[in-house]
Write a structure and sequence with these properties.
- The protein is α/β, with parallel strands linked by helices.
- Helix content is 50%, strand content 11%.
- It contains 14 helices and nine strands.
- The longest helix has 23 residues.
- The protein is globular, with a radius of gyration of 20 Å.
- The two termini are 35 Å apart.
């Protein structure tokens, strides 16, 4: 197994989690176990209309737990939405939070919790280990197979005033319980399935080559990539295929356990910059950038990228020269993107050449850049953005 010194001291954080068909319906039981009297259920309007939010509320009320539903969450949750949710939590006298949704409701829920217990504005928590007091009990129920906010110590919030996304990284961001139910992902359409699946792939790929990786995170990252290779295409083509949906949910969970502990890299730093500037879909930004960043980073971790290529189905002989390894690994990533219909460019999303210097500067300041295996310059990032247009 390639990698650094696996005898180095490492910390690994993960929540209690229940995985499998029906896990979501345990929400009431777990809330009652946490002595919750009244929960703030943070979700999104689409999930409410589909009915997933209502089913979780029913599970809670059956166990005698009162609920207040808050669905004022954008696809990239904004700081004012967090503060509005915190106001609802306080006004209604809530004592626990249940998040139902993808990364946006889960990140919003995490942020609402720490705002309430620390009595500070959410933007004051930006960075690593800046949360003094943990939030109230938090149960996360993911409805997408990609973000893994349900198992991670990350929380990403948009500051629309500064046009940036901030990262809050703290073990206080790890939920008390994650109820990971593949059944909830069957309502995703093909595009969302592809974008969130490639988000999971990016989590696994970046954690695997991170300069903070370890034996435990490598194991999770590699298995995540193998599962994505096996199941993503089927999940996109056949939304009701529970084998594929379960495989992708497991891949997302493994990738989340990997990146929560090994952190990420340049793809996420750059995607946060893009999402902050133009409020773009996070998974799509990652997908557009992933192969370009792999190409840039390759020389820093050639053996790990070879293992990544093999995990994704590339036929790479053990004695293949470096250039061939690079090409075949990139081909495997690009083939997967192509097969699931992701062929957009940054130009197609509205990114102009004059945006690139600002995007590069913001990406360079992102906390995720610290663990990239190779430290880029502003000019390096401008070039990667340019290639991705």
């Amino acid at each position: 197994m390639p990698g650094g010194n696996h005898s180095e001291l490492r910390k690994f954080v993960a929540p209690e989690f229940v995985f499998g068909d029906g896990a979501a319906m345990l929400a009431g039981q777990y809330a009652a176990n946490l002595s919750a009297q009244k929960t703030l259920v943070v979700s999104g309007p689409i999930l409410e209309s589909i009915g997933w939010t209502g089913r979780i509320v029913d599970s809670l009320t059956r166990e005698g737990v009162n609920c207040v539903v808050f669905t004022g969450v954008s696809p990239n949750p904004r700081h004012e939405e967090v503060m509005e949710g915190a106001e609802v939590y306080r006004r209604e006298g809530c004592d626990a939070i249940v998040a139902v949704g993808g990364g946006s409701p889960m990140d919003c829920a995490k942020a609402i919790g720490i705002v309430c217990t620390n009595d500070r504005h959410v933007l004051e928590f930006e960075g690593v280990d800046n949360v003094d007091r943990p939030g109230p009990p938090l149960i996360c129920i993911p409805t997408t197979a990609g973000t893994a906010a349900d198992v991670s110590q990350f929380c990403i919030i948009s500051d629309q005033d500064r046009k940036i996304k901030i990262a809050i990284v703290s073990k206080t961001m790890v939920p008390d319980v994650a109820l990971i139910d593949p059944r909830l992902t069957v309502t995703m359409d093909g595009h969302l399935t592809a974008h969130t699946g490639l988000d999971a792939l990016t989590h696994a790929a970046e954690a695997y080559v991170s300069n903070a990786s370890s034996a435990v995170t490598d194991l999770n990252a590699l298995e995540s990539m193998r599962l994505i290779r096996t199941h993503l295409r089927a999940a996109v083509e056949r939304p009701d295929d529970m084998l594929a949906r379960t495989g992708m949910m497991l891949a997302s969970t493994y990738a989340g356990l990997a990146f929560s502990n090994a952190i990420l890299g340049a793809v996420h730093a750059m995607a946060h910059s893009l999402g902050g500037l133009l409020d773009l879909p996070h998974g799509l930004c990652n997908a557009i950038l992933l192969d370009r960043v792999i190409d840039y980073n390759f020389d820093a971790e050639p053996e790990k990228y070879r293992c990544m290529g093999v995990a994704l189905g590339a036929d790479i002989p053990p004695d293949a020269p470096s250039g061939e390894v690079r090409a075949r690994t990139l081909d495997a990533v690009r083939a997967l993107k192509r097969d699931v219909g992701v062929n957009e460019t940054l130009a197609g999303l509205g990114i102009k050449p004059e945006d690139l210097p600002l995007l590069a500067r913001n990406a360079l300041a992102d906390v995720c850049m610290l663990t990239n295996p190779k430290q880029p310059s502003t000019d390096d990032l401008i070039e990667i953005f340019r290639q991705s247009r």
